[in-house]
Write a structure and sequence with these properties.
The structure is a single chain. The chain is of the alpha/beta class and about 260 residues long. The strands form 2 sheets. Strands 3-2-1-4-7-5-8 form a 7-stranded mixed beta sheet. The chain has one domain: Spore Coat Polysaccharide Biosynthesis Protein SpsA, Chain A (Alpha-Beta Complex), CATH 3.90.550.10. The longest helix has 18 residues. The chain has 9 helices and 9 strands. The chain is globular. Bound molecules: guanosine-5'-triphosphate and magnesium ion. The site of magnesium ion has 5 residues, from loops. This is Glycosyltransferase 2-like domain-containing protein. It holds the Pfam family Glycos_transf_2. InterPro entries: Glyco_trans_2-like (IPR001173), Nucleotide-diphossugar_trans (IPR029044).
Length: about 260
């Protein structure tokens, strides 16, 4: 029998992009997930205290789309990590897939991630850096920011990955809960902490090339969020146990096409 899947999507000020997500959930998501050998149980979209019409677009969409499960983030606006953690806590599937509202990494790519889990990985992360990735439309500035950020992450934390910020991540819900419960990062560097905690828990992580089409509409402030993420990575480094940090000495060489 196919394992069940919950998709968790954080949403902040997404009134304009949410209708496209709702349509994808209504028309294609179950088939995309079934082709990956999984059964889609729900798409939890966590509205992170948006002040635009995100909540009403999601509520309206859910009326005609039973798989869509809007969830207000507890305590109002708290950041992407905060919202993802709330979604993970609410997930009912055996596996959980983290994704973004803009579906710049299409849900159909879950097939590649699931293959990695079937191959023995505990966590599969989508990658725009791994050989074979099909990446389109990324502005040069974002590409540069992403590379720089991922270099910083590798140097600071010892993580071997080349694209921590790719939206798609697939893992067992029980693992995701255990990791998310212990996490401190409420903003965009949540993804980095998830991987740091996975490493500390002894979980194996596979970085899997995926198709990705950058959506130019963005909630990311290149200065404020870059500074916040650098600060969060520095804090993460201080929280790490030394053996995990030093694991960077065994890091395998790879391309460094890294993006935020
Ligand atoms: N919960 C929450 N989610 C957010 C916040 N900011 C962005 N998001 C969500 O995070 C996801 C990614 O946001 P984007 O604005 O596309 O940013 P990105 O894809 O990381 O960066 P770009 O490369 O600029 O697209 C979307 O689902 C957003 O709704 C926030 O403050 N809180
Ligand atoms: Mg995006």
């Amino acid at each position: 029998m196919a394992a069940t899947l919950s998709v968790v999507v954080p949403a902040y000020q997404e009134a304009a992009r949410a209708p496209r997500l709702v349509a994808a959930v209504r028309d294609a998501a179950a088939d995309d997930v079934a082709r990956a050998g999984l059964e889609l149980l729900e798409v939890i979209v966590v509205d992170d205290g948006s002040t635009d019409a995100t909540a009403s677009v999601l509520e309206e969409g859910a009326r005609s789309t039973p798989l869509l499960r809007p969830l207000p983030a507890p305590g109002g606006h708290g950041g992407k990590g905060h919202a993802v953690a709330a979604g993970i806590a609410a997930a009912r599937g055996e596996l959980v897939l983290l994704a973004d509202c803009d579906l710049s990494a299409p849900l159909a790519e879950v097939a590649h991630l699931h293959q990695a889990l079937r191959g023995g990985a505990d966590v599969a992360i989508g990658s725009r850096a791994a050989a074979g990735a099909d990446v389109r439309n990324t502005p040069l500035t974002r590409e540069y920011m992403g590379r720089t950020f991922n270099r910083l992450v590798r140097a600071a934390t010892g993580l071997p990955h080349h694209d921590t910020q790719c939206p798609l991540k697939l893992l067992r819900t029980s693992d995701a809960r255990r990791l998310a419960e212990a996490m401190q990062t409420r903003g965009f560097a949540f993804d980095v902490e998830l991987l740091v905690r996975a490493q500390e828990a002894g979980l194996s992580v596979a970085e899997v090339p995926i198709a990705f089409c950058h959506d130019l509409d963005s909630r990311v402030d290149p200065i404020a969020h870059a500074l916040e993420m650098a600060r969060d990575v520095a804090r993460l480094r201080r929280s790490q146990r030394k053996p995990e940090r030093d694991a960077r000495r065994q890091v395998q060489p790879a391309g460094d096409e890294l993006r935020l």
